[in-house]
Write a structure and sequence with these properties.
The protein is 64% helix and 6% strand. By secondary structure, it is mostly helical. Strand 1 and strand 2 form a beta hairpin. This is GntR family transcriptional regulator.
């Protein structure tokens, strides 16, 4: 976590948990850490951990079974939607940055294609 980041800590933790879910580190229906363990892991206040779980429940990313704990959603479509939302956010930031540089659509697409191929060649 970056405590001097402009993004509030609880949002950073939520984003981290979402990444764990879409990358499969936390599987569908898997039990999540207790609020106390979450607070210890991220070095946050237990009240913040509670707020995080309430927010994740409100977004249908997790659910609580009374007396058993908090679990990752079992809805695969919801996880796909989270993945698409995160990808759209990244694309929006990318396009905004390119627009500020005055780079046109055709050049952006060519650069993206080149970088994608370079990335795949390096990482496979």
């Amino acid at each position: 976590m970056e405590f001097d980041n402009n993004i509030p800590i609880y949002i950073q933790v939520i984003q981290d948990i979402e990444k764990d879910i879409i990358t499969g580190k936390l599987g569908l229906g898997e039990k999540m850490p207790s609020g106390r363990d979450l607070a210890l892991k991220y070095k946050i206040n237990p009240n913040t951990a509670s707020r995080i779980y309430k927010e994740l429940e409100a977004q249908a990313i997790c659910f609580t079974k009374r007396g058993l704990g908090t679990f990752v959603t079992e809805d695969g479509a919801r996880v796909d939607q989270i993945r698409k939302d995160m990808a759209n956010d990244l694309l929006e930031q990318f396009i905004s940055g390119m627009d500020k540089l005055g780079i046109q659509k055709a050049e952006i697409l060519a650069m993206l294609e080149e970088k994608y191929l370079e990335f795949k060649e390096t990482n496979n």
